[in-house]
Amino acid sequence: MFAARSKSSARGFLLAKLHRSAAWRQFIFESNEERKCLLVSFSQKEVVDIWDQPPRVPFRDAAGKLRYHVFDYLLLFETGFKLALAVKPSALVERNGFDKELELIKAQLPKRFADDALLVTENSYSEAEVRNAELLHMFRGIEDAEADAVVAEALRGLNGSTSVQQVVEATGLKGRAYRAVFRAIFDGAVEADLSHHVTERSILTLPEVR
Which is nearest to 31 in space by CA: 39, 19, 22, 43? Predict the structure, then answer.
């Protein structure tokens, strides 16, 4: 459960199915920045698990006093790497010097808990990155195996580059194809410039074989 809503927060939860996961889960956020952090984390295909409000970790502050910190999220990557996220408004970080405190916490971080920790603020993501993540979350909630299969077949025949609109028109599935292409981009089946909003004008290319 999460605390009741207040004027200074935007508490709630998101239902999501992580990449390569068959089960839908509920993830709690306690601010709009935490919601954005969750959405962007959902969009990373390398992230295989997310723990919201993980157990507190002990650390000694600059005065040597034993204290505890609760990270907002703990991300597990497919490589086994674990990353703890502390989500804070940049104004608060500057006011209370949390960035310096986080450096102390990182230096004492138990390896069994996480391999590293990262400070996330409203400046950590671009508008396009958040918007794409929001649309992806919405489109993954509309499961359409038929459209995914038709689009996958169209992309297999891709030679060079094409636009999202051309794939949509070639399949004849309209909005269903657009949502399927969007999902395919973030699943790694095809690439697009994610520094901009993904639209029907976005150019698609096949990923380079490594």
Answer: 39
**Per-residue pLDDT at 4 exceeds 60:** no
Structure tokens at 192: 């697009």
Instruction: Name residue 163's amino acid.
Output: S
Separation of alpha carbons 201 and 33, rounded Å:
29
Cα separation, 119 vs 74, in Å, equals: 12
* pLDDT the model gives residue 210: 53
> What radius of gyration do the chain's Cα atoms show?
20
Contact 119, 98 (CB under 8 A): yes
Least confident of 134-143, 152-161, 162-171, 176-185: 152-161
What's the whole-model pTM score? 0.89
Cα 88 to chain centroid distance, Å, stands at 16
Is it the case that residue 67 has pLDDT exceeding 60?
Answer: yes
Beta strands in the chain (DSSP E): 12-16, 25-29, 47-52, 57-60, 66-69, 73-77, 82-87, 116-120, 161-163, 203-205
* pLDDT over 80 (residue 22): no
What b/e string do you get for 129-145 counting C-beta neighbours within 10 Å, with b at 16 or more?
bbebbbbbbebbeeebe
Pairing, β 25-29 against β 12-16: antiparallel
